[in-house]
Amino acid sequence: MHISKLKKYYFIDDFNPIHLKDLDKNITLIWRNKKSEDDMEIIYKLAKFCKKNKINLFLSNNIKLALKLNLNGVYISAKNKDIRFNSFNIKKNFIFLGSAHNLQEVKVKKLQNVKEIFISPIFKHKGRTPLGIHRCRYFFEDRSYQKIALGGINKKNINLLLLTKFAGLAGINLFKKKGPE
To answer: What is the SS3 assignment for 80?
Structure first.
């Protein structure tokens, strides 16, 4: 499998149309601005930009707004344990993404009906203890969701992901400059 076959997710926290236009068209954006999660003006501009440029956009932890803006879906962080998403009128192609750091959090994400789970951190990142490729094998036993690698991924270790059953990769710094080929 070549790196281009993996799904790619880019966590963004600012709207820079010049940078976003230069990205590979197969990258999905996830808006996750921790400083101003609900900066409506920026989110509206970003949503309009993504629709115009045919870029998939997910909103972090705000299902109501993601549905209102007719986005591709919502990203549910590992800290979000709420399982009451069934009370919303969900459109057919609306996708739930989520992240987990251990098997207990994976169970919560499955209750939230998440289709793709970002397993983090895979490699050493900001001093956090990485799960590593070998410890992730426990996650691969369950085939009810796709696994996305997150955390510490760079151009040096990205080829290790090709040896695993990860369906994709996600990051911030990985895509800041040119991104993976």
So the answer is: coil
| Closest residue by Cα to residue 7 from 145, 149, 132 | 149
Maximum distance among all Cα pairs of the chain, rounded to whole angstroms = 44
d(CA 16, CA 5): 26
Name which of 151, 145, 156 is nearest 129 in CA terms.
Answer: 151
Q: DSSP label at 128?
A: B
How many angstroms separate the CA atoms of 46 and 166, rounded? 28
- Only one residue has tokens 């549905």, namely 67
- Do residues 28 and 8 touch, judged by C-beta distance below 8 A? yes
* Each residue's pLDDT tens digit, 160-177: 877 778 889 998 877 876
**What is the DSSP pairing of strand 7-12 with strand 168-171?**
parallel
**Token digits for 43?**
């989110």
Identify residue 114 by its one-letter amino acid code.
V
Nearest-angstrom CA–CA distance, 157 and 152: 9
- The strand ranges marked E within the chain are 7-12, 27-31, 57-60, 73-76, 95-100, 116-119, 146-150, 168-171
pLDDT digits 0-9 by tens, 143-158 = 788 889 888 888 888 8
Cis (ω within 30 of 0) for the bond into 17? no
